[in-house]
Design brief:
The complex is a heterodimer of chains A (about 250) and B (about 250). Chain A is an all-alpha fold and about 250 residues long. Chain A is built from ten helices and no strands. Chain B has about 250 residues and is an alpha/beta fold. Classes of the chains: A mainly alpha (about 250), B alpha/beta (about 250). The structure holds adenosine-5'-triphosphate and magnesium ion.
Chain lengths: ~250, ~250
Protein backbone atom coordinates (compact mmCIF):
# COMPACT_ATOMS: atom_id res chain seq x y z
CA UNK A 1 0.00 0.00 0.00
CA UNK A 2 2.80 2.39 0.89
CA UNK A 3 4.58 1.70 -2.37
CA UNK A 4 1.42 2.49 -4.30
CA UNK A 5 0.82 5.69 -2.30
CA UNK A 6 4.39 6.83 -2.94
CA UNK A 7 4.03 6.43 -6.69
CA UNK A 8 0.64 8.15 -6.59
CA UNK A 9 1.95 11.12 -4.58
CA UNK A 10 5.00 11.34 -6.79
CA UNK A 11 2.77 11.59 -9.85
CA UNK A 12 0.63 14.27 -8.22
CA UNK A 13 3.71 16.19 -7.12
CA UNK A 14 5.10 15.97 -10.63
CA UNK A 15 2.25 17.96 -12.17
CA UNK A 16 1.84 20.17 -9.13
CA UNK A 17 5.45 21.37 -9.40
CA UNK A 18 4.63 22.70 -12.86
CA UNK A 19 1.05 23.76 -12.15
CA UNK A 20 1.47 26.83 -14.31
CA UNK A 21 1.46 24.53 -17.33
CA UNK A 22 -0.71 21.76 -16.00
CA UNK A 23 -3.50 23.66 -14.26
CA UNK A 24 -3.37 27.34 -15.12
CA UNK A 25 -2.77 26.97 -18.85
CA UNK A 26 -5.76 24.67 -19.45
CA UNK A 27 -7.91 26.95 -17.29
CA UNK A 28 -7.09 29.95 -19.45
CA UNK A 29 -7.65 28.17 -22.75
CA UNK A 30 -10.99 26.81 -21.52
CA UNK A 31 -12.10 30.24 -20.36
CA UNK A 32 -11.20 31.66 -23.77
CA UNK A 33 -13.43 29.07 -25.45
CA UNK A 34 -16.17 30.00 -23.05
CA UNK A 35 -15.80 33.70 -23.68
CA UNK A 36 -15.85 33.36 -27.46
CA UNK A 37 -18.56 30.73 -27.81
CA UNK A 38 -20.96 32.05 -25.22
CA UNK A 39 -20.77 35.44 -26.91
CA UNK A 40 -21.13 34.25 -30.50
CA UNK A 41 -23.90 31.78 -29.70
CA UNK A 42 -25.85 33.94 -27.23
CA UNK A 43 -28.59 34.78 -29.75
CA UNK A 44 -29.14 31.20 -30.94
CA UNK A 45 -32.19 29.24 -29.95
CA UNK A 46 -31.77 27.46 -26.61
CA UNK A 47 -30.48 23.89 -26.91
CA UNK A 48 -32.85 22.72 -24.21
CA UNK A 49 -35.96 24.77 -23.43
CA UNK A 50 -35.23 27.41 -20.80
CA UNK A 51 -31.48 26.63 -20.64
CA UNK A 52 -29.09 29.36 -21.79
CA UNK A 53 -26.32 28.41 -24.18
CA UNK A 54 -23.71 29.28 -21.55
CA UNK A 55 -25.33 26.91 -19.06
CA UNK A 56 -25.31 24.22 -21.75
CA UNK A 57 -21.73 24.93 -22.78
CA UNK A 58 -20.00 25.23 -19.40
CA UNK A 59 -20.38 21.61 -18.21
CA UNK A 60 -19.27 20.40 -21.64
CA UNK A 61 -16.20 22.62 -21.67
CA UNK A 62 -15.31 21.68 -18.11
CA UNK A 63 -15.59 18.01 -19.00
CA UNK A 64 -13.56 18.46 -22.15
CA UNK A 65 -10.70 19.98 -20.17
CA UNK A 66 -10.97 17.21 -17.58
CA UNK A 67 -10.71 14.54 -20.26
CA UNK A 68 -7.77 16.19 -21.98
CA UNK A 69 -5.85 16.84 -18.77
CA UNK A 70 -6.42 13.39 -17.31
CA UNK A 71 -5.09 11.93 -20.55
CA UNK A 72 -2.15 14.31 -20.68
CA UNK A 73 -1.09 13.53 -17.12
CA UNK A 74 -0.55 9.79 -17.30
CA UNK A 75 0.56 9.71 -20.92
CA UNK A 76 3.12 12.50 -20.76
CA UNK A 77 4.55 11.28 -17.46
CA UNK A 78 5.06 7.78 -18.84
CA UNK A 79 6.52 8.88 -22.16
CA UNK A 80 8.83 11.33 -20.43
CA UNK A 81 10.03 8.62 -18.05
CA UNK A 82 10.57 6.23 -20.94
CA UNK A 83 12.45 8.73 -23.08
CA UNK A 84 14.67 9.90 -20.22
CA UNK A 85 15.02 6.34 -18.92
CA UNK A 86 14.00 7.05 -15.34
CA UNK A 87 11.07 4.63 -15.53
CA UNK A 88 13.63 2.00 -14.40
CA UNK A 89 13.33 3.38 -10.88
CA UNK A 90 9.73 2.20 -10.83
CA UNK A 91 10.37 -0.98 -12.79
CA UNK A 92 13.09 -2.10 -10.35
CA UNK A 93 10.69 -2.05 -7.40
CA UNK A 94 8.28 -4.72 -6.15
CA UNK A 95 5.27 -2.61 -7.24
CA UNK A 96 2.67 -4.83 -8.88
CA UNK A 97 0.93 -4.01 -12.17
CA UNK A 98 -2.19 -3.10 -10.17
CA UNK A 99 -0.32 -0.57 -8.06
CA UNK A 100 1.42 0.84 -11.10
CA UNK A 101 -1.85 1.22 -12.99
CA UNK A 102 -3.90 2.82 -10.21
CA UNK A 103 -1.14 5.19 -9.14
CA UNK A 104 -0.94 6.67 -12.64
CA UNK A 105 -4.71 6.65 -13.20
CA UNK A 106 -5.57 8.24 -9.85
CA UNK A 107 -2.99 10.99 -10.35
CA UNK A 108 -4.76 11.66 -13.66
CA UNK A 109 -8.06 11.78 -11.82
CA UNK A 110 -6.65 14.35 -9.39
CA UNK A 111 -5.35 16.57 -12.18
CA UNK A 112 -8.52 16.23 -14.27
CA UNK A 113 -10.87 16.93 -11.38
CA UNK A 114 -8.70 19.83 -10.21
CA UNK A 115 -8.73 21.50 -13.62
CA UNK A 116 -12.48 20.83 -14.02
CA UNK A 117 -13.27 22.30 -10.60
CA UNK A 118 -11.23 25.42 -11.23
CA UNK A 119 -12.97 25.90 -14.59
CA UNK A 120 -16.41 25.46 -13.04
CA UNK A 121 -15.73 27.74 -10.09
CA UNK A 122 -14.41 30.46 -12.36
CA UNK A 123 -17.37 30.11 -14.72
CA UNK A 124 -19.76 30.34 -11.79
CA UNK A 125 -18.52 33.88 -11.24
CA UNK A 126 -19.86 35.02 -14.58
CA UNK A 127 -22.79 32.75 -15.40
CA UNK A 128 -25.65 31.28 -13.47
CA UNK A 129 -25.49 27.50 -13.86
CA UNK A 130 -27.68 25.16 -11.88
CA UNK A 131 -26.38 21.96 -10.26
CA UNK A 132 -29.58 19.92 -10.09
CA UNK A 133 -28.16 16.42 -9.49
CA UNK A 134 -24.73 16.77 -7.82
CA UNK A 135 -24.27 13.02 -7.42
CA UNK A 136 -24.30 12.51 -11.19
CA UNK A 137 -21.75 15.31 -11.52
CA UNK A 138 -19.37 13.51 -9.18
CA UNK A 139 -19.97 10.07 -10.71
CA UNK A 140 -19.30 11.23 -14.25
CA UNK A 141 -16.31 13.37 -13.24
CA UNK A 142 -14.69 10.32 -11.66
CA UNK A 143 -15.55 7.86 -14.42
CA UNK A 144 -14.47 10.31 -17.11
CA UNK A 145 -11.06 10.95 -15.59
CA UNK A 146 -10.53 7.24 -14.88
CA UNK A 147 -11.40 6.46 -18.51
CA UNK A 148 -9.18 9.14 -19.92
CA UNK A 149 -6.35 8.52 -17.45
CA UNK A 150 -6.39 4.82 -18.41
CA UNK A 151 -6.27 5.73 -22.07
CA UNK A 152 -3.24 7.85 -21.20
CA UNK A 153 -1.54 4.91 -19.48
CA UNK A 154 -2.23 2.75 -22.53
CA UNK A 155 -0.84 5.40 -24.87
CA UNK A 156 2.15 5.91 -22.56
CA UNK A 157 2.97 2.21 -22.56
CA UNK A 158 2.72 2.06 -26.33
CA UNK A 159 4.51 5.27 -27.32
CA UNK A 160 8.28 5.28 -27.44
CA UNK A 161 8.76 8.88 -28.52
CA UNK A 162 7.13 12.25 -28.00
CA UNK A 163 5.84 12.49 -31.56
CA UNK A 164 4.02 9.17 -31.19
CA UNK A 165 2.33 10.65 -28.16
CA UNK A 166 1.42 13.77 -30.09
CA UNK A 167 -0.25 11.53 -32.66
CA UNK A 168 -2.51 10.09 -29.95
CA UNK A 169 -3.35 13.59 -28.77
CA UNK A 170 -4.11 14.94 -32.22
CA UNK A 171 -5.73 11.96 -33.94
CA UNK A 172 -7.59 10.30 -31.10
CA UNK A 173 -8.11 12.39 -27.98
CA UNK A 174 -8.74 15.76 -29.59
CA UNK A 175 -11.31 14.54 -32.17
CA UNK A 176 -13.06 12.34 -29.60
CA UNK A 177 -13.41 15.21 -27.14
CA UNK A 178 -14.36 17.83 -29.73
CA UNK A 179 -16.93 15.61 -31.45
CA UNK A 180 -18.50 14.60 -28.18
CA UNK A 181 -21.24 17.19 -28.00
CA UNK A 182 -19.37 19.65 -25.80
CA UNK A 183 -20.50 22.55 -27.99
CA UNK A 184 -23.85 21.31 -29.33
CA UNK A 185 -26.61 18.81 -28.75
CA UNK A 186 -26.23 15.80 -31.05
CA UNK A 187 -29.95 16.15 -31.87
CA UNK A 188 -28.95 19.17 -33.92
CA UNK A 189 -26.57 17.04 -36.05
CA UNK A 190 -27.44 15.38 -39.39
CA UNK A 191 -28.41 11.77 -38.74
CA UNK A 192 -25.07 10.30 -39.95
CA UNK A 193 -23.08 12.34 -37.43
CA UNK A 194 -25.69 11.77 -34.80
CA UNK A 195 -25.28 7.99 -35.21
CA UNK A 196 -21.48 8.24 -35.27
CA UNK A 197 -21.44 10.26 -32.04
CA UNK A 198 -23.20 7.39 -30.32
CA UNK A 199 -20.09 5.23 -30.76
CA UNK A 200 -17.97 7.80 -28.94
CA UNK A 201 -17.76 7.01 -25.21
CA UNK A 202 -16.79 10.62 -24.50
CA UNK A 203 -20.23 11.69 -25.78
CA UNK A 204 -21.89 9.75 -22.94
CA UNK A 205 -19.43 11.17 -20.43
CA UNK A 206 -20.31 14.72 -21.38
CA UNK A 207 -24.01 14.05 -21.72
CA UNK A 208 -24.21 12.39 -18.32
CA UNK A 209 -22.09 15.10 -16.69
CA UNK A 210 -24.34 17.77 -18.17
CA UNK A 211 -27.42 15.97 -16.87
CA UNK A 212 -26.01 16.48 -13.38
CA UNK A 213 -26.13 20.25 -13.91
CA UNK A 214 -29.21 20.79 -16.06
CA UNK A 215 -31.37 17.81 -15.24
CA UNK A 216 -31.85 17.25 -18.97
CA UNK A 217 -29.68 15.46 -21.52
CA UNK A 218 -29.68 13.77 -24.93
CA UNK A 219 -29.81 10.26 -23.49
CA UNK A 220 -30.73 8.93 -20.04
CA UNK A 221 -27.90 9.24 -17.47
CA UNK A 222 -28.39 5.56 -16.62
CA UNK A 223 -27.67 4.59 -20.21
CA UNK A 224 -24.57 6.82 -20.13
CA UNK A 225 -23.48 5.28 -16.83
CA UNK A 226 -23.78 1.78 -18.27
CA UNK A 227 -21.80 2.63 -21.38
CA UNK A 228 -19.10 4.68 -19.67
CA UNK A 229 -18.77 2.10 -16.88
CA UNK A 230 -18.35 -0.69 -19.43
CA UNK A 231 -15.78 1.33 -21.37
CA UNK A 232 -13.83 1.91 -18.13
CA UNK A 233 -13.85 -1.78 -17.30
CA UNK A 234 -12.80 -2.86 -20.77
CA UNK A 235 -9.99 -0.33 -20.95
CA UNK A 236 -8.72 -1.06 -17.42
CA UNK A 237 -8.74 -4.77 -18.11
CA UNK A 238 -6.79 -4.34 -21.35
CA UNK A 239 -4.27 -1.96 -19.83
CA UNK A 240 -3.73 -4.15 -16.77
CA UNK A 241 -3.20 -7.21 -18.97
CA UNK A 242 -0.59 -5.33 -21.01
CA UNK A 243 1.15 -4.06 -17.88
CA UNK A 244 1.20 -7.56 -16.46
CA UNK A 245 2.80 -8.94 -19.60
CA UNK A 246 5.47 -6.23 -19.52
CA UNK A 247 4.62 -5.25 -23.10
CA UNK A 248 6.94 -2.45 -24.29
CA UNK A 249 8.11 -1.81 -20.72
CA UNK A 250 10.10 -4.92 -19.90
CA UNK A 251 11.60 -5.85 -23.25
CA UNK B 1 22.87 -21.89 2.13
CA UNK B 2 21.02 -20.44 -0.85
CA UNK B 3 23.16 -18.73 -3.44
CA UNK B 4 22.72 -14.97 -3.79
CA UNK B 5 22.35 -15.27 -7.54
CA UNK B 6 21.55 -18.44 -9.44
CA UNK B 7 21.24 -18.38 -13.21
CA UNK B 8 20.46 -21.44 -15.33
CA UNK B 9 20.37 -21.47 -19.11
CA UNK B 10 19.57 -17.77 -19.46
CA UNK B 11 19.02 -17.05 -23.12
CA UNK B 12 18.16 -13.76 -24.78
CA UNK B 13 17.92 -12.57 -28.38
CA UNK B 14 17.28 -9.09 -29.74
CA UNK B 15 16.16 -9.73 -33.30
CA UNK B 16 19.19 -11.33 -34.95
CA UNK B 17 21.55 -10.51 -32.06
CA UNK B 18 22.04 -13.48 -29.75
CA UNK B 19 22.93 -11.43 -26.68
CA UNK B 20 23.05 -14.31 -24.16
CA UNK B 21 23.65 -17.93 -25.08
CA UNK B 22 22.35 -20.21 -22.33
CA UNK B 23 24.32 -18.62 -19.51
CA UNK B 24 24.83 -20.45 -16.21
CA UNK B 25 26.18 -18.48 -13.30
CA UNK B 26 26.12 -18.81 -9.53
CA UNK B 27 27.22 -16.15 -7.06
CA UNK B 28 27.46 -17.29 -3.47
CA UNK B 29 26.00 -15.17 -0.69
CA UNK B 30 28.60 -12.79 0.74
CA UNK B 31 30.79 -12.87 -2.34
CA UNK B 32 32.43 -9.90 -4.06
CA UNK B 33 32.09 -10.81 -7.71
CA UNK B 34 33.24 -9.21 -10.97
CA UNK B 35 31.37 -9.77 -14.22
CA UNK B 36 33.78 -8.75 -16.95
CA UNK B 37 33.69 -8.68 -20.72
CA UNK B 38 34.22 -6.38 -23.70
CA UNK B 39 31.58 -3.93 -24.95
CA UNK B 40 28.53 -5.77 -26.18
CA UNK B 41 29.39 -9.03 -24.40
CA UNK B 42 26.00 -9.16 -22.67
CA UNK B 43 26.79 -7.97 -19.14
CA UNK B 44 24.03 -5.38 -18.99
CA UNK B 45 21.59 -7.75 -20.66
CA UNK B 46 22.25 -10.34 -17.95
CA UNK B 47 21.78 -7.74 -15.22
CA UNK B 48 18.53 -6.57 -16.83
CA UNK B 49 17.18 -10.12 -16.78
CA UNK B 50 18.11 -10.39 -13.12
CA UNK B 51 16.38 -7.09 -12.33
CA UNK B 52 13.24 -7.93 -14.31
CA UNK B 53 13.84 -5.01 -16.68
CA UNK B 54 13.97 -7.56 -19.42
CA UNK B 55 12.37 -10.99 -19.82
CA UNK B 56 14.47 -14.06 -20.72
CA UNK B 57 13.60 -16.13 -23.80
CA UNK B 58 14.60 -19.23 -21.85
CA UNK B 59 16.18 -20.16 -18.55
CA UNK B 60 15.61 -19.30 -14.90
CA UNK B 61 17.16 -16.62 -12.72
CA UNK B 62 16.95 -16.44 -8.94
CA UNK B 63 17.92 -13.80 -6.39
CA UNK B 64 18.35 -15.17 -2.86
CA UNK B 65 16.38 -18.19 -4.00
CA UNK B 66 13.44 -16.19 -5.43
CA UNK B 67 12.60 -16.59 -9.10
CA UNK B 68 12.77 -13.19 -10.78
CA UNK B 69 9.64 -13.86 -12.84
CA UNK B 70 7.39 -15.97 -10.61
CA UNK B 71 8.42 -14.43 -7.28
CA UNK B 72 9.34 -11.02 -8.64
CA UNK B 73 8.34 -9.01 -5.58
CA UNK B 74 10.59 -10.94 -3.21
CA UNK B 75 13.38 -11.12 -5.78
CA UNK B 76 13.33 -7.33 -6.26
CA UNK B 77 13.26 -6.61 -2.52
CA UNK B 78 16.48 -8.56 -2.28
CA UNK B 79 18.17 -6.81 -5.17
CA UNK B 80 19.60 -3.32 -5.63
CA UNK B 81 20.71 -2.38 -9.12
CA UNK B 82 22.81 0.58 -10.21
CA UNK B 83 22.00 0.98 -13.91
CA UNK B 84 24.76 1.68 -16.40
CA UNK B 85 22.92 4.59 -18.03
CA UNK B 86 23.01 7.89 -16.17
CA UNK B 87 19.28 8.40 -15.63
CA UNK B 88 17.49 10.71 -13.21
CA UNK B 89 14.16 12.41 -12.60
CA UNK B 90 14.57 16.16 -13.19
CA UNK B 91 11.50 17.01 -11.11
CA UNK B 92 13.04 16.21 -7.74
CA UNK B 93 15.91 16.97 -5.36
CA UNK B 94 18.44 14.37 -4.25
CA UNK B 95 16.71 13.80 -0.94
CA UNK B 96 13.24 13.60 -2.52
CA UNK B 97 14.59 11.10 -5.03
CA UNK B 98 15.83 8.85 -2.23
CA UNK B 99 12.69 9.22 -0.14
CA UNK B 100 10.52 8.35 -3.12
CA UNK B 101 12.65 5.31 -3.97
CA UNK B 102 12.42 4.24 -0.35
CA UNK B 103 8.64 4.61 -0.47
CA UNK B 104 8.35 2.38 -3.54
CA UNK B 105 9.77 -0.41 -1.41
CA UNK B 106 7.19 0.27 1.27
CA UNK B 107 9.71 1.63 3.77
CA UNK B 108 9.00 4.33 6.28
CA UNK B 109 11.24 6.07 8.83
CA UNK B 110 14.21 5.37 6.59
CA UNK B 111 15.81 8.77 7.23
CA UNK B 112 18.77 7.52 9.26
CA UNK B 113 19.81 5.11 6.57
CA UNK B 114 19.31 7.75 3.88
CA UNK B 115 21.56 10.13 5.86
CA UNK B 116 24.13 7.39 6.19
CA UNK B 117 24.14 6.75 2.43
CA UNK B 118 24.31 10.48 1.67
CA UNK B 119 27.32 10.83 3.98
CA UNK B 120 29.16 7.86 2.61
CA UNK B 121 28.67 8.96 -0.98
CA UNK B 122 29.59 12.55 -0.09
CA UNK B 123 26.21 13.80 -1.15
CA UNK B 124 25.11 15.38 2.12
CA UNK B 125 25.70 18.94 0.96
CA UNK B 126 23.76 18.24 -2.24
CA UNK B 127 20.74 16.76 -0.49
CA UNK B 128 18.49 19.67 -1.40
CA UNK B 129 19.88 20.32 -4.86
CA UNK B 130 17.67 19.53 -7.82
CA UNK B 131 18.84 16.49 -9.79
CA UNK B 132 19.09 18.61 -12.94
CA UNK B 133 21.78 20.80 -11.38
CA UNK B 134 24.17 17.97 -10.48
CA UNK B 135 27.32 17.11 -12.39
CA UNK B 136 27.60 13.73 -14.12
CA UNK B 137 29.63 12.16 -11.31
CA UNK B 138 27.17 13.45 -8.71
CA UNK B 139 24.27 11.96 -10.63
CA UNK B 140 26.13 8.64 -10.66
CA UNK B 141 26.42 8.81 -6.88
CA UNK B 142 22.69 9.37 -6.53
CA UNK B 143 22.11 6.38 -8.78
CA UNK B 144 24.20 4.29 -6.39
CA UNK B 145 22.37 5.73 -3.40
CA UNK B 146 19.01 4.83 -4.95
CA UNK B 147 20.07 1.21 -5.35
CA UNK B 148 20.99 0.99 -1.66
CA UNK B 149 17.97 2.68 -0.17
CA UNK B 150 16.14 -0.56 0.72
CA UNK B 151 19.29 -2.27 2.08
CA UNK B 152 19.21 -5.08 -0.47
CA UNK B 153 21.22 -8.21 0.42
CA UNK B 154 22.39 -8.40 -3.20
CA UNK B 155 23.87 -5.31 -4.82
CA UNK B 156 24.56 -5.17 -8.55
CA UNK B 157 26.63 -2.30 -9.92
CA UNK B 158 26.83 -1.88 -13.68
CA UNK B 159 29.97 0.23 -14.24
CA UNK B 160 29.51 2.31 -11.10
CA UNK B 161 32.82 4.14 -11.50
CA UNK B 162 32.44 5.34 -15.08
CA UNK B 163 32.92 9.11 -14.97
CA UNK B 164 33.57 9.25 -11.23
CA UNK B 165 36.62 11.11 -9.90
CA UNK B 166 39.50 9.36 -8.11
CA UNK B 167 38.62 10.52 -4.65
CA UNK B 168 35.03 9.37 -4.80
CA UNK B 169 36.05 6.13 -6.46
CA UNK B 170 38.14 5.31 -3.42
CA UNK B 171 35.50 6.28 -0.90
CA UNK B 172 32.86 4.48 -2.95
CA UNK B 173 34.84 1.24 -2.87
CA UNK B 174 35.44 1.64 0.86
CA UNK B 175 31.70 1.97 1.36
CA UNK B 176 30.94 -1.02 -0.88
CA UNK B 177 33.57 -3.07 0.93
CA UNK B 178 31.99 -2.15 4.24
CA UNK B 179 28.61 -3.32 2.90
CA UNK B 180 30.26 -6.54 1.73
CA UNK B 181 31.76 -7.10 5.19
CA UNK B 182 28.34 -6.55 6.69
CA UNK B 183 27.08 -9.43 4.58
CA UNK B 184 25.86 -7.89 1.33
CA UNK B 185 26.71 -9.76 -1.83
CA UNK B 186 28.31 -7.56 -4.49
CA UNK B 187 28.27 -8.12 -8.24
CA UNK B 188 29.92 -5.50 -10.37
CA UNK B 189 30.90 -4.87 -13.94
CA UNK B 190 33.74 -2.59 -14.81
CA UNK B 191 36.22 -1.93 -17.59
CA UNK B 192 38.89 -0.91 -15.05
CA UNK B 193 40.39 -4.32 -14.49
CA UNK B 194 42.76 -3.25 -11.75
CA UNK B 195 39.66 -2.33 -9.72
CA UNK B 196 38.20 -5.78 -10.23
CA UNK B 197 41.51 -7.41 -9.38
CA UNK B 198 41.92 -5.45 -6.16
CA UNK B 199 38.35 -5.87 -4.94
CA UNK B 200 36.79 -9.05 -6.22
CA UNK B 201 37.32 -12.53 -4.93
CA UNK B 202 35.73 -14.18 -7.95
CA UNK B 203 35.51 -13.27 -11.61
CA UNK B 204 33.37 -14.37 -14.55
CA UNK B 205 34.16 -13.26 -18.07
CA UNK B 206 31.48 -12.96 -20.73
CA UNK B 207 32.34 -12.98 -24.40
CA UNK B 208 29.69 -12.75 -27.11
CA UNK B 209 26.98 -13.90 -24.74
CA UNK B 210 28.88 -16.84 -23.27
CA UNK B 211 30.77 -17.32 -20.03
CA UNK B 212 34.34 -18.09 -21.08
CA UNK B 213 35.96 -17.98 -17.64
CA UNK B 214 34.63 -18.34 -14.10
CA UNK B 215 37.01 -18.74 -11.19
CA UNK B 216 38.59 -17.02 -8.22
CA UNK B 217 40.76 -14.07 -9.12
CA UNK B 218 43.78 -15.90 -7.68
CA UNK B 219 43.19 -19.04 -9.74
CA UNK B 220 42.77 -17.05 -12.92
CA UNK B 221 46.08 -15.31 -12.38
CA UNK B 222 47.84 -18.55 -11.47
CA UNK B 223 46.43 -20.61 -14.32
CA UNK B 224 47.92 -18.20 -16.85
CA UNK B 225 51.02 -17.51 -14.84
CA UNK B 226 50.34 -13.80 -15.20
CA UNK B 227 50.52 -11.10 -12.57
CA UNK B 228 47.74 -8.78 -13.76
CA UNK B 229 44.06 -9.53 -14.37
CA UNK B 230 44.22 -7.27 -17.40
CA UNK B 231 46.76 -9.59 -19.08
CA UNK B 232 44.64 -12.62 -18.23
CA UNK B 233 41.63 -10.87 -19.75
CA UNK B 234 43.50 -10.07 -22.96
CA UNK B 235 44.79 -13.65 -23.21
CA UNK B 236 41.31 -15.08 -22.73
CA UNK B 237 39.83 -12.74 -25.33
CA UNK B 238 42.42 -13.95 -27.81
CA UNK B 239 41.99 -17.70 -27.37
CA UNK B 240 38.45 -18.00 -26.20
CA UNK B 241 39.73 -19.14 -22.82
CA UNK B 242 37.28 -22.00 -22.33
CA UNK B 243 40.05 -24.06 -20.67
CA UNK B 244 40.11 -21.53 -17.84
CA UNK B 245 36.53 -22.34 -16.90
CA UNK B 246 36.20 -23.89 -13.48
N1 LIG C 1 17.26 -3.38 -26.37
C1 LIG C 1 18.13 -3.91 -27.25
N2 LIG C 1 17.79 -4.03 -28.54
C2 LIG C 1 18.64 -4.57 -29.43
N3 LIG C 1 19.86 -5.02 -29.14
C3 LIG C 1 20.25 -4.95 -27.84
C4 LIG C 1 19.42 -4.38 -26.85
N4 LIG C 1 20.07 -4.43 -25.67
C5 LIG C 1 21.27 -5.00 -25.94
N5 LIG C 1 21.39 -5.32 -27.24
C6 LIG C 1 22.54 -5.98 -27.86
O1 LIG C 1 22.92 -7.08 -27.07
C7 LIG C 1 24.32 -7.20 -26.99
C8 LIG C 1 24.77 -7.15 -25.54
O2 LIG C 1 24.61 -5.84 -25.04
P1 LIG C 1 24.90 -5.43 -23.53
O3 LIG C 1 24.42 -4.07 -23.35
O4 LIG C 1 24.39 -6.49 -22.64
O5 LIG C 1 26.52 -5.45 -23.52
P2 LIG C 1 27.50 -5.08 -22.32
O6 LIG C 1 28.31 -6.29 -22.06
O7 LIG C 1 26.76 -4.50 -21.18
O8 LIG C 1 28.41 -3.97 -23.01
P3 LIG C 1 29.08 -2.62 -22.40
O9 LIG C 1 30.35 -3.02 -21.76
O10 LIG C 1 29.32 -1.79 -23.60
O11 LIG C 1 28.12 -2.02 -21.46
C9 LIG C 1 24.89 -6.08 -27.86
O12 LIG C 1 25.16 -6.61 -29.13
C10 LIG C 1 23.76 -5.08 -27.92
O13 LIG C 1 23.83 -4.36 -29.13
MG1 LIG D 1 26.72 -2.70 -20.29
Amino acid sequence: MRGFLTLFFKEVLRFWKVSLQTVLAPLISTLLYLLVFSHVMADHADVYPGVSYAAFLIPGLAMMSMLQNAFANSSSSLVQSKVTGNLVFVLLTPLSHWEFYWAYVLASVVRGVLVGSVVLLTAWFFFAIPAREPLWIVVFALLATILSGSLGVLAGIWAEKFDQMAAWQNFIVLPLTFLSGAFYSIHSLPSFWNTLSRFNPFFYVIDGFRYGFLGSSDVSPWESLLIVGSACLALSWTTLALLRSGWRLRT
Amino acid sequence: MTAAIEIHGADKRFGTVHALKSVDLTVEAGDFFALLGPNGAGKTTLINLLAGLSVPDAGTLKVMGFDVVRDYQKARRNLGVVPQELVFDPFFTVRETLEIQSGYFGLKNNDDWIDDILDNLQLADKAHANMRTLSGGMKRRVLIAQALVHRPPVIVLDEPTAGVDVELRQSLWKFIQRLNREGHTILLTTHYLEEAEALCRRVAILKQGQIVAHDTTQNLLRSRDLSRLEDVFVAIMQDGGLEAES
